[in-house]
Amino acid sequence: MKIKFSILIIVITAVILTGVAVPVLRQASNISLSLSLQELEYAAKNHATYLHGREGVYFNVLQSLAGIMSDESVPAQERHDRLDDMLRSTLNSPNNFVRIYIIWKPNASDGMDVRFIGRPGSTYTGQYAMNWDKDTGKIVSTQNLNLKETTSYIACPNAHKDQADHPVLLKKLRL
After folding, report:
1. Which of 42, 72, 105, 123 could form a disulfide with 127 if both were Cys (CB 3.0 to 4.6 A apart)?
2. 109, exposed or middle or buried, with CB in 10 Å at 0-12, 13-18, 19+?
């Protein structure tokens, strides 16, 4: 009888402890999960704010360049060289640009595309489509290979809105 009574008390105690412990542990787990999610959301918002500010600097530089490039007081025959100088200088700036390119609509920069056929950074029609990069650590110029995609963007209704291309995996820089 003593043993039965002891086993009964142990079973009742175990049931009561389990009945109390499970909800308390579940509540503690939910609180911990909720706090972890709040911390992750806070960290994500802070990182997004940082990235938004960082990208804002790049867009400001590009918008400033666009404003300067729209200056028509530069003689037409010098515009391609001046544009090249500005893009090259931007890569040399402390803004951490690795690649910068520009594509003008046909005859939009100076109305003399035919004169620039065969010039580095020009298409087979002479259209200005320059690409400057320092992928290898050395600044080099090439014709822009995004011509078709960019030209279709220029012609679309969103042409006057900022656009950021998706990141492209490049080889490690050899500086």
Report:
1. 123
2. buried
Give the residue from 124, 85, 127, 86 showing the smallest Cα distance to 109. 127
Asked if residues 90 and 57 have their Cβ atoms less than 8 Å apart, the reply is no
Helix ranges, 70-92 (H): 79-92
Distance, in Å, from the CA atom of 130 to the CA atom of 123, rounded to the nearest integer, reads 9
- SS3 for 116? helix
CB 131 within 8 A of CB 137: no
Q: Convert the pLDDT of each residue in 120-161 to its tens digit.
A: 888 888 888 888 888 778 888 877 767 777 777 777 777 677
119, burial (CB in 10 Å: exposed 0-12, middle 13-18, buried 19+): middle
77-154: CATH topology is Beta-Lactamase (3.30.450)
The secondary structure of residue 171, as a DSSP letter, is P
Query: How is the chain split into domains, by residue range?
Result: 1-70, 77-154
